[in-house]
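Design job #97: recover the sequence.
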């Protein structure tokens, strides 16, 4: 797969996440954050079972123990980011939640450098900050006084950045992206399920009320989008992946305008332009330099 195709998969993942943000928020009217998170990841894990089985049968060698441990680590990062985000949504505004989560676009290249000494192409740094600036502008250009929910969103952005880095480390060498996706969903479902049993008491009626959000969150925002991320990241860097995945804020605003009739303010349009420019820069600038060197 070419890097362009991989980045287009990541862009599609961002689109699916952007459309699912409303479902993630409205589900809180019926169930608690632990219940929604557990149900969403359980649906996603079940959906991936047949694909992971087929992938395992086609594999030339069994999955080594270090790779299995790495897959579990990815699941731990995913669970931490998802539950912090879901709890934070309860006590912060949608605007704050949207662009504070988007901090992962800045955290990813920084943490990748600190943890892996991975030096991204120079264009990643200005593009990361441009993408985050675009997310801020899409949210109206400001944030209310930070509270507990806002700090939870910042923490979730750190764990999402770590998840992106971990996927980049383990997805490529193993060649088992579907198994990785299933494992991370199963780990997140089990941990969220334990929290649900201890902290919440969901009823069948409540789950029935939230079933559309749970199905969308499980099948599309989780099973489809995170699997697209896993496949795409086998052929691009974590820093570039974070920038393309940050398009979720752009698509959230566009879907809200098309489906809900919400208007995007002029400052929000500028934010869309910044995000789009950041994605074009990380895709085109490295190719332009390579072309000049070899021509």
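Job complete. Output follows.
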């Amino acid at each position: 797969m070419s890097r362009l195709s991989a980045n287009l998969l990541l862009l599609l993942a961002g689109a699916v996440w952007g459309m699912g943000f409303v479902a993630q928020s409205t589900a809180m009217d019926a169930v608690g954050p632990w219940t929604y998170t557990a149900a969403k990841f359980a649906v996603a894990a079940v959906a991936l079972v047949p694909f992971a089985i087929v992938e395992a049968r086609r594999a030339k060698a069994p999955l080594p123990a270090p790779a299995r441990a790495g897959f579990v680590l990815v699941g731990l990062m995913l669970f931490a980011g998802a539950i912090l985000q879901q709890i934070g949504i309860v006590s912060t505004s949608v605007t704050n939640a949207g662009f504070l989560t988007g901090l992962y676009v800045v955290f990813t290249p920084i943490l990748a450098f600190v943890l892996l000494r991975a030096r991204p192409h120079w264009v990643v740094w200005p593009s990361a900050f441009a993408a985050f600036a675009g997310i801020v502008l899409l949210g109206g250009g400001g944030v209310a006084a930070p509270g507990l929910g806002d700090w939870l969103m910042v923490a979730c952005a750190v764990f999402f950045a770590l998840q992106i880095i971990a996927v980049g480390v383990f997805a490529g060498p193993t060649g088992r992206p579907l198994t990785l996706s299933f494992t991370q969903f199963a780990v997140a479902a089990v941990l969220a399920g334990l929290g649900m049993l201890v902290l919440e008491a969901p009823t069948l009626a409540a789950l029935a009320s939230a079933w559309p959000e749970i199905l969308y969150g499980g099948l599309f925002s989780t099973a489809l989008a995170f699997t697209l991320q896993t496949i795409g990241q086998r052929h691009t860097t974590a820093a570039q992946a974070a920038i393309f995945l940050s398009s979720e804020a752009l698509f959230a605003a566009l879907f809200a305008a098309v489906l809900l009739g919400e208007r995007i303010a002029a400052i929000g349009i500028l934010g869309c332009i910044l995000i789009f420019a950041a994605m074009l820069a990380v895709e085109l600038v490295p190719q332009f330099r390579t072309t000049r060197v070899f021509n």
